[in-house]
Task: structure prediction
Amino acid sequence: MIDPLVASSKLSSSGLEAQSARLRVISENVANAQSTGRTPGSDPYTRKTITFKSELDRTLGAASVAVKDVGQDDSAFPVEYDPGNPAADENGMVKKPNVNMLIEMADMREANRSYQANLQMMKQARAMISATIDLMRG
Amino acid sequence: MTAPVYLFDLASRQAQWLAARQTTISGNVANANTPGYRARDVEPFADVLDKTKLNMAATNASHIGFTPSKAEASKVKKADSWDTVYSKNSVSLEQELIKAGEVNRQHSLNTSIVKSFHRMLMSSVRTS
Result:
């Protein structure tokens, strides 16, 4: 069992790590929002999803967070008429990635907010540790 | 004789409790987006004090020690949390940050009091 305030910083760092992994997945989705296939009728970029799991860290004695897995969104691809595209099928229809910009932006804001909250907790734990150390300065 | 001053013992116990609470809140914030995670909180400090029992003496280094006044993290009841989202996560960031502010305030009060009492003691100990 380590010092609770150190444990607090470690928990916050696990949260920061998880949220930055989430941001990475979101930026991947946004970057590939227009990535279609190369061959006629082929599938475009599939939207990625990320899930977290809470795991009990025995040295900390508390539940930290970790990335469970990065999965794929199985929803249907929207199709668009674009005969000039290399991925167009015989009818001229192109499958577009199932990335919804609005959802990605909302997700990004939420990840950002959670990241800031974790950062705030880390700052506070540090402030508490230095307040305790300052007791020795008399 | 005056009554003994339990201030330092009390202050250190409250600091311990505050540290435990800070850890619990950090755990909640870290798991703010974990599906199925239920927000936790430690029991109030007054309850921890009430439950304090006599400690068993460890006469051998290999005995397992007991820390009597360690605040146990307990799950918050459903009604205590401000919101529960569809993924059954009951962490509300606003609520957690308010609790964290409370902990911070109490901790700075605690350290300030200890510091000023320490200064008082030192001024009475110092001679000449």
